[in-house]
Amino acid sequence: MASFKLCVFLGLIALAHAAYSAAQHRTYLRLTEQEFTMLPHDILLQCILGLLLTCYGVVNVAGNFKEIRASAEQENKTWDMLGNRGGFNMFHHRGKAMFREL
């Protein structure tokens, strides 16, 4: 678990460094009055590797995933449990006042 958190941390540091390097490169191009065409390959590579490292760490830190199917949690319940809708039981209603003598 700690190694995956380290992956997330290092990936975020790599992404922050790539962003800083990209900003420095743009500043350098403005100072030398060159036209911006694309970022250098080392900055692009660092950005992609940082993104992949961060994604790998986040997916493994999150833990076990649940199934997407809506019926996955319902499979271990019986029909009696599924038919019971406790949230719809109301015991304080007008029927008490209408049928007191019963």
Structural write-up:
By secondary structure, the protein is mostly helical. 59% of the residues lie in helices and 0% in strands. It has helices at residues 2-31, 41-61, 79-83, 95-98. Helix 1 packs antiparallel against helix 2 (41-61).
What topology emerges from the helices and strands here?
Layout: H1 2-31, H2 41-61, H3 79-83, H4 95-98
Q: Quick one: overall form?
A: elongated
Instruction: Give helix and strand order, one letter per element, not per position.
Output: HHHH
Question: Biggest sheet, open or closed, and with what strands and sense?
Answer: none
Q: Round the Cα radius of gyration to an integer and report it.
A: 29 Å
Q: Into which percent range does the helicity of residues fall?
A: 55-70%
Q: How confident is the prediction overall: mean pLDDT?
A: 84
Secondary-structure-derived class:
mainly alpha
Poorly predicted segments: none
Strand content: under 5%
Oligomer: single chain
Number of strands: 0
Query: Cα distance, first to last residue?
Result: 64 Å
Q: Given the structure, what is the number of helices? A: 4
